[in-house]
Amino acid sequence: MKQDISRKGAELAKNEDVFFASSAPLRETFFSFLRQCLTIAAKDLRAEWRTKEALNASLAFSTVILILFSFALDPNPEMMQEFSGGLLWLVFLFAGALVLNRSFAREMQNDCLDALLASPVPPSGLFLGKVLANYALLMMLEFLCLVEFGLLFNVRWLGNVGPLMLVMALGTWALTVVGTVFSALTVNLRLREVMLPVLVYPMMVPPMMAAMILTTDLLAGTALGPGNMLWVRVLVGFDVIFTLLGVSLIDTVLVG
Amino acid sequence: MNALEIDGVWKYFGDFPALRDVGFKVDAGSVVALLGRNGAGKTTLLRILAGLAKPSKGTVKIYGSEVREEPTRRRIGVLGHGISLYDELTATENLVLFGKLYGLNDAPKRAHQWLERTGLERVRDGLVREFSRGMRQRLAVARTFLHDPEVLLFDEPFTSLDDRAIAVLQSLIAEAQARGATIVMSTHQLREAIELSTHIALIKKGQLAYAGERRQEMLDDPTWLYRTYEGESAS
Description:
heterodimer, A: 256 residues, 9 helices, 86% helix, B: 2 domains, six-stranded mixed β-sheet, globular
């Protein structure tokens, strides 16, 4: 019996060795993929930081919309409780389209997209790298918009800041993933600035509905709980499904 | 050993067949001049070889593997019509970026070496958007050779290059040939292409009109190929 146990132990140890040996190339492939994604993201962020093309335009645009809304609606606290989330996410959507439009358009200058596609970076790595860069830019933009929104509409959002950031993070990921796929799809179109919102906004109805309802709740002081958890699940589900779809479809979108 | 195997490749743009049943093999170490008139399908074929487009029918293999496989792409260097460099990045940043994407562990060192080789060491920290046309082209050449590719694909490599860039590219092509790299270049510059090449492929209206070794007749009279296989005089 003792001998049997020790034999089984030896077999297990052997299997463990085999497992770690076989997972090493997998781990190396994963880290190599991650490095490539981060290299693409860092390149995009550096290029944007040097030119500030998309960031300046989207920040100026969102400020103008917020100011116009504040004049047009003459908001009072009761009114704001009803549609603060909707208003905020509309601004995020409009301003976000400007950032997302530049994402693949930047690659058309000097035919850079060809060099990226000819390189060993898989299209999914290129896509995820761009998603990460766009996500960072959009989150920064949205945070600035949120501050402006609080000041212009006298909305106190710091009370529920944690859950609010979670909703913004989930909603923005949805916008970024869908927007980046369509940015790749429309990159060769002459009217891409128009086509991107036309294609992206209808796709964004489910996550935007969820994000708007959750943001309105949170800004009105309602915490996340069983009553609105369904919308969090909608956001998470949408994010997961569309990230997987984007990763699997991007090769067809970019190479044909 | 075949470096390239192109088998029954068709490419449709809508209903228009840009390539029709193109097939030939290229031995490792060969220099192939891909010739043909404007719109013959040279760039389309090169884009398929580079993995930038998929054929509608047929297969392309590089050293026996599919072009879109990651290890295969590590072996290819492409110099297309555009310089494929980022205007907002410096010369060093551009080369280091591509070095990292090709998985080079010594990307900064290689970038430095190639900036020296292409005479751009002085402007290594300058933004590409501030470069002259010739400097941009030399940097594009450096990007193409950065990872020591075994298969080099050039689309009109000498068009719009300045004298210095042509000299740099010619010496690098000769060096690559000496180390056994396979080179495919599409060009309109008949004489230069024929002098540099070991093999010729002529495409006429999407079909392969000739594929084979360079002959003495071609060297004696570069228009001989067009006259013989296209049945017209070369312009």
